Amino acid sequence: MSPQQKLEALRTQMRAQNVQALFIPRADEYMGEYVLHHNERLRFATGFTGSAGMAIITLDSAAIFVDGRYTVQVRQQLSADLFEFYDLDNQQQLMFLAKSLKQGDKVAIDANCHSLTWVNNTNASLQILGIELAALPNNLIDAIWQDRPQPSQLPTFTFSNESAGATSIEKRQLIAAEINKHDADALLITELDAISWLLNLRSLNIPCLPVVIGRALLYANGDMVFATNTALLEDDVSAHVGSGVRFIEEADFNKEFAALNGKTMLADANISHAASQLAALDAGIELINATDPTALIKAQKNPTELAGMRQAHIKDGIAVTHFLAWLDEEVAAGNFYDEGVLADKLKRFREVQPGFKDLSFDTISAVGGNAAMCHYNHKDTTPAVMPDNSIYLVDSGGQYLEGTTDVTRTIAIGQPSSEHIKMVTLVLKGHIALDQQKFPRGTCGAQLDVLARQHLWNQGFDYDHGTGHGVGHMLSVHEGPQRIAKNTNSVPLLPGMVVSNEPGYYKADDFGIRIENLIAVREMDNDFERPMLGFEALTLIPIDKRLIDKTLLNENEINWLNSYHLQVQQTLMPQIMDKNVQLWLAQATSEL
Amino acid sequence: MSPQQKLEALRTQMRAQNVQALFIPRADEYMGEYVLHHNERLRFATGFTGSAGMAIITLDSAAIFVDGRYTVQVRQQLSADLFEFYDLDNQQQLMFLAKSLKQGDKVAIDANCHSLTWVNNTNASLQILGIELAALPNNLIDAIWQDRPQPSQLPTFTFSNESAGATSIEKRQLIAAEINKHDADALLITELDAISWLLNLRSLNIPCLPVVIGRALLYANGDMVFATNTALLEDDVSAHVGSGVRFIEEADFNKEFAALNGKTMLADANISHAASQLAALDAGIELINATDPTALIKAQKNPTELAGMRQAHIKDGIAVTHFLAWLDEEVAAGNFYDEGVLADKLKRFREVQPGFKDLSFDTISAVGGNAAMCHYNHKDTTPAVMPDNSIYLVDSGGQYLEGTTDVTRTIAIGQPSSEHIKMVTLVLKGHIALDQQKFPRGTCGAQLDVLARQHLWNQGFDYDHGTGHGVGHMLSVHEGPQRIAKNTNSVPLLPGMVVSNEPGYYKADDFGIRIENLIAVREMDNDFERPMLGFEALTLIPIDKRLIDKTLLNENEINWLNSYHLQVQQTLMPQIMDKNVQLWLAQATSEL
Predict the structure, then answer these.
(1) Using one digit for the tens of pLDDT, what is the confidence trace for A172-208?
(2) Residue A488 pLDDT more than 90?
(3) Of B14, B53, B284, B301, which residue has the fewest beta carbons closer than 10 angstroms?
(4) In A249-286, which positions are buried (b, 16+ CB within 10 angstroms) versus exposed (e)?
């Protein structure tokens, strides 16, 4: 079907349902960063491939709403004859509806693809115009999507208690205690990583995100209902999760609410899809809008998870070290590859590591000006070949059975310029300052963010992204609730949390720099007047000394780098068998 | 009257009014940091002299609620036979009422002494118990206060347009534009410094706070009604404020609301006393709860105000330099004075500066362990004599016609210990880091706070107060809305704002350290990729080098100190006539 045919087919559906408009968000019922391939309805309906956006179709017009990252791309992918273009902004969506519809009209939604908060707020605004949201029982896009892909149906497998550090029963009791603190009877859990963590189960159906798929209800006694494709459960799953877990089909989930009539259920109205919450309300359940307590407890890795994270980072260090040694050798031999070849080569070094299951996100392999685009993906375009005398940015990570990694290194290709070296050094100074900072309990990431930016700011530079995101344990590489960024975030950094430390600098159309380690929050054991927390660097990969101007570092910073490199060398060297790679590692980690 | 007699007299009043309890806050109708002497009702009724607190009197019990600073003091000042002691916390107050009262009871308040938000929230909670707040027309304490002090009746005088940098008409037009942005008809202004700034008027009725006293209404056309004791207005006031200002008596203020029937009025429900807002509601005015826009505009000093602040700091620098030179000479001669003598001596050096009007706050003059108490005032106790081989903390400031100052220096008395020197140096490193930091527009103080703490945190130390508060222009030495502190504050630092930079360290019962300059936010004129803001130090007073361990400073920090001291020397020296003081200043500002 052509784009125009799709719109007309949707309008035929809309007329049949007697609705005058239709919201198409880029979201599915799991409301996560990843949308399952067979749920990419915005992409199917409009042709827009960005990772965030909304379309509104009316009977005689259509509009698409995207954020600043996609304003150019959306105009390339969609015809201005068919779509009006707006910012991804609730108010602009409401204004578009206000000008397109009249009193008494209805706007269709699939309540599985919107949060309850969004539904309530949008309803309240549209009511002022006499317009009504209509949650349809079926998704109108699915009705016209003839060649819709099949869902991935890989098995749901056990994640060992030895890796997890706690059994599912133990974890469910922990969260049940939180449910009881709210005097609630149950907790709606729609975040896939929360369910996976609670049940110690994983699957590989979503690229880079080894979560199980479904929705769940945890009762105040620790029992749990997991609604999923039960045909995919491996045989040992039931015994592994322990007593108290029922597995049902997703289509049967809402039937569970009947037994909770007159009781209370915790649900995060901002995060969870509206459909289950609306069904619960229909069943006479009182909703308590609260953050899913699983997130904060999951974020504080237990000692076993932390040990696994360290182990995963050693494997990752070996893989990336082999890649960097290979890269230097190729460049020295005059072999310059394109970004895709480099990303594939790096992937192959990771794949041979035992326990490797997947990448943790699409590798960002970017040369020259491509590296200045923070969301660049060489797969979206013709991969560029690295020029000589430039810098190469590679941001990549793996999902290992022991844990998840995420690292960025910026690498000299030939002779970097003095500007490259100055800017890498300023970025490194910020990275070191954050890594070294100790701080009292109660400190939030937003308070520490400036440490990574201070040297850039003092010379008139900045970077337009956060400094650090949380990272899961063989789960999402972007995990809340903590973060380190300019924006206020009231979640304190707590022992066991893993965050990235990734300051950068980007010169449009020229080059991009980022230096990223994962760091774990830990209690300092110094004999201090006041107890302090601090960080432990998990990532063990050399930082390219050819891009560092030693004269811009103070003694403390030089000591940090030398001691970091010594640790990298001592940890990785015994596990590297290739003589050339050994030699490369020795010089890459020698004293500055 | 004895404390018990006062309570019984109040209970007689309460019975006559048919109320079963009475709130006595430490506040008056101006709801500011300072409570006018004749409005110190909590102190009169209970004997508690702290700067924050609440009492609740019932017919057969009484309770006092104070914060952590006063838990010891309150038990010394009040008898446990008469009062129960609680934390200064709304919930504890409600719990006390819940246990003391029964359904149908009434709790008296003077709505002039509580914010509307407090009244509404307290009402909502008490209603659940069937208890009612009763806003009485007269304050019950006043009815029994026979020897109540007379209000200070010093004149209200003009603050020259040359000092203010803008006429009252210009300022009122600025704020009227903000009123119009809210589609409102008027703005209730109860903050005394806002009224003083808008009218370019001052008075000296409140110690250290040269504001006029009254309440005001600013209309959307820029006209203004100022309700005050009109007998105190100097003859030239009316011409000075320009057209559109009416002066009325405070008692007549609420009559103004009648003309606004059916119109809307901006008022800050969190800040302004409830009485005027309740009267406005009674008069059929719709209230819009919003921050008084005057605060943010006033906080961004205009070029004339900034020039005045610089001038005031030169005068202050001369005064404090004379004091520090004198102090060193006395200590060298073996003369050790008490904290009160030192504070008085310092005041005399300030008083001789032309344009000096008042101190900007009670001088904190503290030796030894006294300096570890952040709210120490030698007037509350027997002033201590400085011991030899110790450090002396002096936090002081002046109100000059050109502007307001606030400075803290920590001074070596004899031979300080290595611990003193180490801790002063760590504090200084934080002070320097904050002073030097550049930052993009939109940055809030909470983001920069860590810079002042980083070196302390890294060695296990911290200080339990904010790093910086805003400062007014010949107005309050504590001025919002910006601040630099751990707590989130969403007001960005903007050019022209003046804040303090005052990291410290306190070792209980031993010593206290603070190094405070005032700094002004300014646009950096560097040729930067991104425009940055930065700070300009206003305070020009030597930092005691005897307390600095040079080996703990990096080159950049040493350069900062030397260049700061050079600026102090070059600015102050030409204005110092006393040879001995010149010699002292030369050595105090010589290179480290």
Answers:
(1) 999 999 999 999 999 999 999 999 999 999 999 999 9
(2) no
(3) B284
(4) eeeebbebbeebeebbbbbbbebbbbbbbbbbeebebe
Q: What residues of A are in contact with residue B458 (Cβ under 8 Å)?
A: 436-438
Residues 509-548 (A) with a CB less than 8 A from some CB of B: 524, 526-532
B33 is a domain residue: yes
Per the CB < 8 Å rule, is B460 touching A554? no
Give the closest residue to A54 by CA, choosing from A76, A37, A74, A79: A74
**Does A223 lie in the same domain as A112?**
no
Percent of chain A with pLDDT over 70: 100
Reply yes or no on whether the pLDDT at A91 is more than 80: no
With a cut of 90, say whether residue A223 has pLDDT above it. yes
Report the side by side order of strands in the sheet with B132-135.
Answer: B84-87, B62-66, B54-58, B21-25, B106-109, B132-135
Q: Which residue of chain A has the CA closest to B556?
A: A554
- Structural domain boundaries enclosing A78: 3-144
Query: Cβ contact (<8 Å) for B532 and A457?
Result: yes
Does B443 sit within 8 Å of A486, measured CB to CB? yes
Q: Is A551 on the interface with B (CB under 8 A)?
A: no
Q: Which residue has the higher pLDDT, A487 or A223?
A: A223
Q: Which of residues 67-86 of B touch A (CB under 8 A)?
A: none
* Residue A151 located in a structural domain: no
Q: In A126-235, which ranges are E strands?
A: 132-135, 156-158, 186-189, 201-203, 215-219, 224-227
Residues A488, A341, single domain; the answer is: yes
pLDDT value for B73: 87
Q: For residue B479, what is the domain's CATH number? A: 3.90.230.10
Give the pLDDT band (50/70/90) at residue A475: very high
Residue whose pair of structure tokens reads 């969301």 in the numeric block = A375
Using the beta-carbon criterion (under 8 Å), do B530 and A462 form an inter-chain contact? yes
**Residue numbers in B near A457 (CB within 8 A):** 437-440, 532
CB contact under 8 A, A450 and B447: yes
- DSSP letter assigned to residue A26: S
Q: In the listed set A115, A144, A173, which residue is the last one of a domain according to the structure?
A: A144
Average of per-residue pLDDT across A416-431: 98
Are both A308 and A192 inside the same structural domain? no
A559 touches B at CB < 8 Å: no
Residue B439 forms contact with A (CB below 8 Å): yes
| Sign of the CA dihedral running B319, B325, B326, B327 | positive
pTM score:
0.87
Tell whether A552 is within 8 A of chain B (Cβ): no
**A and B: number of Cβ contacts within 8 A:** 84
Whether the pLDDT of residue A98 is over 90: the answer is: no
* Residue B347, domain member (yes or no): yes
Pairing of strands A245-248, A224-227: parallel
Q: What is the ipTM of this complex?
A: 0.82
Are B394 and B462 contained in the same domain? yes
**DSSP 3-state assignment of A227?**
strand
Predicted pLDDT at A413:
96
Q: What is the mean pLDDT of each run of 10 residues along chain B (592 residues)?
A: 96 97 96 87 96 96 91 91 91 84 95 96 85 95 95 96 97 97 96 97 95 97 98 97 97 96 96 96 96 95 98 98 98 96 98 97 94 85 90 97 98 97 98 98 96 98 95 95 90 97 95 97 92 98 98 96 98 97 98 96
What pairs with residue A227 in β-bridges? A215, A248
Domain count, chain A: 3
Q: Which two tokens stand for residue B408?
A: 């803290």
Domain for residue A281, yes or no? yes
Shared domain check, B512 and B378? yes
CB B189 within 8 A of CB B292: yes
Does one domain contain both B444 and B574? yes
- Alpha-helical segments (H) within B22-87: 41-46, 71-77
Q: pLDDT tens for residues A373-385?
A: 877 888 888 999 9
* Contact A437/B at CB under 8 A: yes
**A136, A162: one domain:** no
